[in-house]
Amino acid sequence: MDTIVWKNIFLEGQVTESAGFPRDEEFSVLIDQVSLRIKDPITQTFVLKVSGFRSETIPLEKIAEGAQEKIGKEDVLVREFSIAFQLTSLDPDRAIPQLKDVVAALERFMKQGRTAFPVSLSGEVGFVYKKKYGQGRIYIEREGAENILVMDKGDVKGLCRMMGEEVWNEEVDVAYRWPARVPRLIQIRDYARTRAHEVSAQRSDVPEKAYRHVLWSYLLTGKYGAAFAKEATSAHELYQEPEERVFNIEPVASHQMDMANDGVGARYAESGYPEDGLAEHMINDPEVIFYPGGPRGQKLSPEENRNTL
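User: That's the sequence. What structure does it adopt?
Assistant: Structure tokens below.
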């Protein structure tokens, strides 16, 4: 016998932390079949194959306190996944440490979507948001010395359009390499825009554009860490936003403002500030740029805030 087979595997659990920040999500996994076979007895090459992998993730919390919408259940379907590996020896004392390396590689692939091991995969990621169902195809792409899990770029753009989000190609280049994050990235940006408008309407001392970027980066950092948040927000700053074109705002000044405020939002997340106090922190922060072309910390009057972004 050169193959071992396991069938009908079911797992469930709860995620309480990601990227060092609290999360609250329940998940369940159902796998039709897992097999381990000897591909080449001479080179002692093995292939681990997973068929019919289905998972559901159900967020137990909204993206933030004021959010009216949250991602409904997120589902992942992997029709087939395989990973090949070699053992230099079948002696248990030498094979077990090597198998631990394989397990560590699988764990990294599950968390980060990348591995140096030879892998193949085909499937879809789907989610429900604002009563709309979106789905994107996922597969493996080679990047340098590693194989990474990606979502089809056309599907990323299609999902964003469906949810009313305008994205640049550079933003897609960031998002497509993190397929499982795409649903939440769409929701975070939508929430940051909506909430900034609400807060600015309630408080005449809070300029909407500045607060939107502080909040957006704050939420991204809280979910995925400062490095990813910087990558995502920097990609967004490569082009003019629609509002900048409408109001004929100087792109360089606007982008400098946005990037500075993105950094402020990341700092607030890493400092553990609660969202309901961000506006107060922001209006008293000497590092915030309140309007395009303005110096750090220089606030506008309520009347001037109403006439700027």
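The longest helix spans residues 92-112.
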